[in-house]
């Protein structure tokens, strides 16, 4: 499937039953809400998707089920986050075989690779697949930065197309644009910097709170791209306390609680994650409750 790296691409949560199996019924409810809101793609198997707890068969089921749900309306992108190059190549081959349209790729997990090793890792996977790749650049959380010099080399591979820009440095978007023009598509990857990233020229937004609030997320993107910045700002200011729930070690639990509040998810997480408890649970619920109560009207788009 040919597609453009742009628009809102939810990094969706994986839904589980009370018995800790895949909850495909609730998963479908959420995916349909995303499609109805006008998202541009679905990203599976990220941090929000609890990918580190999923086995290979569950990943296969999620890809195949999502491909069936979207019916070609949007691309299905699988995240690759592996400890070894061999494992990453296998994961990419599996994603392609199961019907994914693209890949989002993290650097090697657990090992802080050198620039040379990081490049070799990305290049080996790029050579192993025909799928387009978005490099996930998040040195804050994963301690490995993909620099502009590294991207210059990576772009020699025709299927490396985009970056999920999560350096937390908005000026990096301008540096990317100045260096590569449109050769490297940029999608903002930090919810609390999303509108700023779009205003500085990002092509899209890999979003987290979209899992619970798809219409509001898509509205911000469309309004910014239409030059209606004041209207986008009003929604973004309402959204910010909720977006801050994504910048937290318990982002999965936080966002799943928000999905419960908007009727498109459950609270079930997979151990070792556990549902929020005590004061922190009350704090998060109060933010979500206030957000739901004051949910803004979406202007005509």
Automatic annotation (TrEMBL):
Alphabetical list of InterPro entries matching this protein: Aldolase_TIM, DapA-like
Alphabetical list of Gene3D superfamilies matching this protein: Aldolase class I
SUPFAM superfamilies: Aldolase
Gene Ontology MF, one: 4-hydroxy-tetrahydrodipicolinate synthase activity
Residues at the catalytic site: 136, 164
Keywords: Lyase
Binding positions (pyruvate): 206
Source organism superkingdom: Bacteria
Cleavable signal peptide: none
Classification via SMART domains: DHDPS
Similarity comment: Belongs to the DapA family.
The protein's name in its UniProt record: Dihydrodipicolinate synthase family protein
């Amino acid at each position: 499937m040919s597609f453009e790296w742009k628009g809102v691409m939810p990094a969706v949560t994986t839904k589980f039953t009370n018995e800790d199996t895949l909850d495909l019924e609730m998963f479908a409810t959420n995916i349909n809400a995303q499609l109805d809101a006008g998202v541009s793609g679905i990203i599976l198997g990220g941090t929000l998707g609890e990918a580190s707890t999923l086995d290979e068969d569950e990943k296969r089921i999620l890809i195949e089920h999502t491909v069936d749900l979207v019916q070609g309306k949007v691309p299905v992108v699988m995240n690759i986050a592996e400890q070894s190059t061999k494992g990453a190549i296998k994961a990419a081959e599996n994603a392609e075989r199961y019907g994914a349209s693209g890949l989002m790729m993290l650097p090697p997990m657990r090992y802080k690779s050198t620039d040379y090793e990081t490049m070799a890792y990305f290049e080996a996977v790029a050579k192993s697949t025909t799928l387009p790749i978005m490099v996930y650049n998040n040195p804050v959380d994963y301690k490995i930065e993909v620099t502009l010099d590294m991207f210059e080399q990576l772009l020699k591979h025709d299927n490396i197309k985009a970056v999920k820009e999560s350096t937390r440095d908005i000026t990096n978007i301008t540096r990317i644009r100045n260096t590569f023009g449109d050769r490297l598509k940029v999608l903002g990857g930090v919810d609390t910097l999303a509108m700023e990233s779009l205003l500085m020229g990002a092509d899209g937004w890999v979003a987290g709170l979209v899992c619970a609030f798809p219409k509001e997320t898509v509205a911000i993107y469309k309004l910014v791209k239409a030059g209606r910045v004041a209207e986008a700002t009003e929604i973004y200011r309402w959204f910010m306390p909720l977006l801050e729930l994504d910048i937290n070690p318990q982002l999965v639990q936080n966002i799943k609680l928000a999905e419960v509040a908007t009727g498109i998810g459950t609270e079930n997480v997979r151990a070792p994650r556990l549902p929020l408890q005590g004061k922190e649970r009350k704090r998060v619920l109060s933010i979500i409750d206030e957000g739901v109560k004051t949910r803004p009207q979406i202007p005509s788009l």
